Each structure stands twice: as C-alpha cells, then as structure tokens.
Amino acid sequence: MAYTASHRFARIAPRKVRLVTDMIRGKPADEALTALQFSKKRGAVFVREVLKSAIANAEENEADPGSLVVTESRADGGPTIKRFQPKDRGRAHPIRKRTSHITVAVDIRAVRGAR
Fold first, then answer.
1. b/e code 47-67 from CB counts within 10 Å (16+ = b)
2. What is the 3-state secondary structure (H, E, C) of the chain?
3. Given this model, what pLDDT does residue 63 score?
4. pLDDT for residue 111
5. How far apart are CA 104 and CA 57, in angstroms?
6. 115 lies in a domain?
7. pLDDT at 110
8. Domain presence at residue 32
9. Which residues contact 84 (CB under 8 A, 6 or more apart)?
10. CA distance 32 to 69
11. Which range of residues forms the domain containing residue 31?
12. What CATH number has the domain bearing residue 40?
C-alpha cells in the first residue's frame, strides 16, 4: 500500500520541481531526504516537506520508516497567475506566474530474493 502526500498550488514552476522529483524517484526514503537536504535547488525545499509528510503518513499506519522507498514523485502544473509588466510607450508584457501540484508516494520496500 502506497502512502502519499501532496502540496497543491505551490508557487514554483513545475519545470523547476521536476528536476528534483526525478532525482529522488526510486530511492530509499532516508537517502532521498539526505539528497534533498543538500540540493541547492529551490524546489528541493518543497519536495522535502512533501516527502516528510508522506513518511509521517506511513508511520501513522505502523509502517517501518527504514524500509520505505519513494515509488512516485511528480510535479503537475497548477493554475497560472497572469500579470502584466508595464513597458515603454504604453505597452505591456504578460508575466505568467506558474504554480505546481507536487505529489510524493512512498511504499514498503519489497524483500529481494523471496519467491
């Protein structure tokens, strides 16, 4: 059973968060937390909080936190906030402030060699 957590309407572009979510997918949860802690990307802060929430959800259901693996991590696009930047001679350039829906799921690691 997978334990999920999500952060909806995060004020960061999904393209930036996907670099971080691709980095942790398939890793053990404790190793993924360490990688996110030392990452210089701004999206790592958002993903780290969601991953900690998913681990807490698993612990709440009596799952062993040492045996958790990140099975799913994705960043979908949310609504775009549209603004305008005034320019010279009465012109205006559009600014699109993008948002993300970040989802992370952890599951118990399967025992290798068991048949």
1. bbbbbebbbebbeeeebeeee
2. CCEEEEEEEECCCHHHHHHHHHHHCCCEHHHHHHHHHCCCCCHHHHHHHHHHHHHHHHHHCCCCHHHEEEEEEEEEECCCEEEEEECHHHCEEEEEECCEEEEEEEEECCCCCCC
3. 87
4. 53
5. 11
6. no
7. 62
8. yes
9. 92, 93, 94, 95
10. 9
11. 3-108
12. 3.90.470.10
Residue 113 pLDDT exceeds 50:
no
**What pLDDT is attached to residue 61?**
92
- Residue 114 in domain: no
Residue carrying the six token digits 């600014």: 95
Determine the residue type at 70: V
Could you tell me if residue 66 is inside a domain?
A: yes
Token pair for 23: 């980095």
Provide the 10 A C-beta neighbour count for residue 79. 10
Token code pair at residue 18: 């996907």
Q: Could you give the number of structural domains in the chain?
A: 1
Look up tokens 């612990």; give the residue. Answer: 59
